[in-house]
């Protein structure tokens, strides 16, 4: 075991305690994903930009296991299952490109080639300045709006090479691209809008042109899951 220690601090400690409080003490293991996410966010915040801090090491996993009363290996099993938990340093902007069948059929391979050429890295690598990492992952559950990528906490969907590279360029400039469908579709409705059941109230509520990037979902930052 490493001689280093890990503990949650400041706002991350408060968030860890808030998540633990959601569950009865004997069920506190249910907070494991939230704590793993918080651990890598705390490391990133302490490391600073370009330092590859958004990841979880063995020391943090052991500390989380102790907090949750779990065997260390159980925490490792969860951390290694979810690609959102990084077990090695990654760039400030971790581009997780879905390469599973629906996204592949809709152009994921050309997206990967375009990003590799644009950033000068191959899949699995990080740019020299530590800003971007490109990883290929399995289905992220947004197949209806394929092809898509997850970059840190945000999904970008209905991508083309041009729209994805524009998103990357905005991130490189410190801007915040609008997440969600990049062709303006609401949620998972058909391209071009609904074709059936157009009369009467929509189960999703009325279309709101002033709504957020996901149509009827409210504009602004989504509530954090942790
Ligand atoms: S196949 Fe890409 S999100 Fe499901």
From TrEMBL:
Q: Cofactor note from UniProt?
A: Binds 1 [2Fe-2S] cluster.
Positions of region (Disordered): 176-226
GO molecular-function terms, A-Z:
2 iron, 2 sulfur cluster binding; metal ion binding; NADH dehydrogenase activity
Q: Which Gene3D superfamilies match?
A: Glutaredoxin, NADH-quinone oxidoreductase subunit E
Similarity remark: Belongs to the complex I 24 kDa subunit family.
Question: NCBIfam families of this UniProt entry?
Answer: nuoE_fam
Which protein is depicted? NAD(P)H-dependent oxidoreductase subunit E
Q: What is the lineage of its organism?
A: Bacteria, Pseudomonadati, Pseudomonadota, Alphaproteobacteria, Rhodospirillales
């Amino acid at each position: 075991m490493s001689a280093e220690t890990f503990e949650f601090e400041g706002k991350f400690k408060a968030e860890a305690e808030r998540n633990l409080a959601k569950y009865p003490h004997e069920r506190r293991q249910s907070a494991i994903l939230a704590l793993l996410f918080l651990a890598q966010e705390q490391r990133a915040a302490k490391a600073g930009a370009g330092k590859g801090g958004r990841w979880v090491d063995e020391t943090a996993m052991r500390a989380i296991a102790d907090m949750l009363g779990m065997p260390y290996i159980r925490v490792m099993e969860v951390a290694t299952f979810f690609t959102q938990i990084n077990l090695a340093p990654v760039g400030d902007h971790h581009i997780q490109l879905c390469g599973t069948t629906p996204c592949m059929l809709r152009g994921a391979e050309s997206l990967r080639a375009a990003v590799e050429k644009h950033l000068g890295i191959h899949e699995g690598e990080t740019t020299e300045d530590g800003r971007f990492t490109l990883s290929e992952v399995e289905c992220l559950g947004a197949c209806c709006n394929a092809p898509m990528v997850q970059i840190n906490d945000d999904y970008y969907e209905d991508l083309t090479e041009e729209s994805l590279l524009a998103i990357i360029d905005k991130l490189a400039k410190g801007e915040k691209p609008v997440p969600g469908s990049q062709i303006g579709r609401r949620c998972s409705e058909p391209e071009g809008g609904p074709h059936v059941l157009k009369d009467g109230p929509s189960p999703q509520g009325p279309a709101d042109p002033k709504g957020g990037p996901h149509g009827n979902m409210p504009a602004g930052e989504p509530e954090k899951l942790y």
